[in-house]
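Submission sheet (multi-component)
Chains listed below:
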Amino acid sequence: MSVQRLRFHGLFRKYFLVLFLAVVIPLAANGISEAWFGYRDQRARLDQLLGVEARSAAARIQGFLDDITGQLGWLVQLPWTGELDERRRIDALRLLRQVPAIVSLTLVDGSGRERLYVSRIGLNRTESHTDRSGEPAIIGARSARLWYGEVSYYRGSEPYLTVAISGNRPSVGAVVAEVNLKLIWDVISSIRVGQTGYAFVLDSPGRLIAHPDISLVLRGADEATLAPFQAARQAVGPTSAGFATSHDAEGSPIAVAAAPIPGPDWTIVVEQPLTEAFGPIYAALWRTGVLLLGGALFAGLLAYALARRMTQPIRLLEEGTERIGAGQFDHLIEIRTGDELQRLADSFNAMAAELAVSQERQERIAKLKRFLAPQVAELVDRKGDDGVLEGRRTEVVVVFCDLRGFTAFSARAAPEEVMSVLSEYYDALGAIITRYAATLTSFSGDGLMVLVNAPVPVDEPAVRAVDLAVEMQVSVQELIVGWRERGYRIGFGVGLAMGPATVGRIGYENRFDYTAIGSVVNLAARLCASASDSEILVDATAAEAVKDKRHVHPIGMRLIKGYDEEFLVYCVGFTQRPQAS
Amino acid sequence: MKRREFISLMSVAVGWPLAVRAQQPALPVIGFLNSRSSDVDASFLTAFHKGLAETGFVEGHNVTIEYRWAKGRYDQLPAMAAELVRKSVAVLVSTGGTVAAKAAKAVTRTIPVVFTTADDPVKVGLVDSLSRPGGNLTGITALFIEAASKRLELLHELLPRASTIGLLVNPTNPATLIESSVVQSAARGHRVEILSVSTDRAFEDLKQKQVDALLIAADPFLFARADQLVALAARQAIPTLYFRSEFAQAGGLISFGSNFADFFRVIGLYAGQILRGAKPSGLPVQQPTKFELVINLKTAKALGLTVPPSLLSQADEVIE
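Outcome: structure written.
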């Protein structure tokens, strides 16, 4: 049973796994590939987005500087002649007002001498004629027209940049401007990358020039403050190809991209928190995960239901065959799947029905065989009903026989000897009764009663009965020879009578016997009782029936116990077989 | 219902909401110390609240502010600062000049202080450096005093023939000495007369000392008396240059100085950042970048002055 249960579970598991995997594998493959391609697309998009942001931010910072240099250009258009004229001074003052980032302006003539210095807070100077031709700003402006200096920190805090610009010919001189880079804040703080991303600017040595949090810029060249920004630029690398990942000051992962600001050789770095940058892909992954989980759950349920549906009929079949095997033939395997399994179940049911019929027949035959000759029993069974066993009145030949002196013998002899004698006796008689297809109605001790012509009628029942009796006598007499040699004084007598009797089954529940009731039975029994050893007594009716065919002779009138008048009794003559010894 | 039961029930009903209110986490408290009065600094307060709001703090909603106004009596500032420290405020905002900042610095070395000063905060010993304040103080400097020489230059440009310049100072403010020396060193051939407001006759002395033009020293108290000063200057018909645009807007002739009201936003921003956990030692002291020149042409006309175009071209605001 446990082995079968195991196999059953195995089948269920197999079906379940196959169905489940059949759904889940394509689902998972689809989900994973989608997530992978989504991730790649998002990376590519991020690459593009951050690249564009970085370039546009760089353009805006460059625009801030270009605006300043463009304004400065106005001051280097007219050549220097003689004294400083008032208009040039007013132009310089107006420029200061126009460009708030410019802290001071120094105008230098063609020979490199300072002619005018105007400052936002400091005192103005005119015509100082200080020789400035050796200063890097003037040399730079003269050689490249536009020159950017190094960033310096005013009072160690505010980043200042020196910008020098020269005119298109030496006589117009040059202008040197100090620019307060704190004012880039207006530009940098307006740059937003995504929701929370921002941009910052580093100069070539890696100092922070612009950042939305101005206090970071104002800390000046502070290594601890600058480290994460320099690390971010380092992560992007010099090629500025695509975005890289780094960590911000709080240690959170960020996506960074950079673009150069060519003028002053700065780098603008845009950064976006990685969680935000990959937000869409995380959302997609999450969605895919949930869908996958839902799909797997659904597949599990589906597979469970299908596997159950598939194994249920098999289980029913298995259970049904088990019950049929155990003899429960009335068990019906109910499968309504409309397929091969139903057909199988139907044939199982048919088989069980046939087995039931067959078994019933077997049982009936076995029962009939107890008192009918096997061939009669078969016959009754073949006819399909035991109507023949119903009570009725018919002409029968009743044969009684018993052993003479058996009671005395059984009182003396040991039980084993008694049983041995009886066993030999019944073996011999049983074979004969069977051979003659006679009906054994009862036996008790050493006597037995046999019916001929009931329940199944035979041709010439009297002849058959006489032959039966003769055969019995012959056989038993042979046994008697043996018994006598062992010192047992036992004889054997037979009586038979023919006449109408009531035959049928009597008994209760499963204990039925087939018997005959009527005076013919009494007569036969009395004839048997009055027969001496090796004698077969026959009544007149039977004798009449066999007189031409068998050798019977009357032995005279005899008074039979229980009858008032005397009967003519006949004796069957027979020859004993020669002694084997 | 018996009376005793009723009373006990009532006390439960009354006491319960009080208990609930007491259980709520206490709002952080900002101590706001100012050397002037609330009406003078109204525009600053607006900027301050704007800065606070940028860090997500709204007064009465998630932050409480304890105000202390000295109303020009600088000697009361140390006691007020001490009182705020006793109330264990989360941040002490000390505004209205170096005097207030120094009063705050004197009473605590642990509570973060956000100050405003017109001086160089390194020179007056408030912080170690602008970029790295170092201690428990940070704030903004208006650079009014640094711009003093520029004011003298502008006055000279307006009145090239003026030979004697008066400087009106508040002697109770230590910054006076610094500003006086800055102005005198920038005088370059001018005569500078230092006039003290502590003498009642400061304005009467103008004529006697043959002062051609007047500079007003950067001082919270003098700012608080802006209307009086402008009226006095008009009565004495003396061309005066002030350190804040509010004077010119109130009728003063000309003013030059940083746009302080706008800059005051940083104070609120820093106070908010400190409430959010920032250390004042890491918040650089900020300097103004915007300096405004305001010229009141009505006053100039009344004084019979012609403002040269070089000045007008530089003016951020011209009141006509």
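Remark: The mean pLDDT of chain B is 83.
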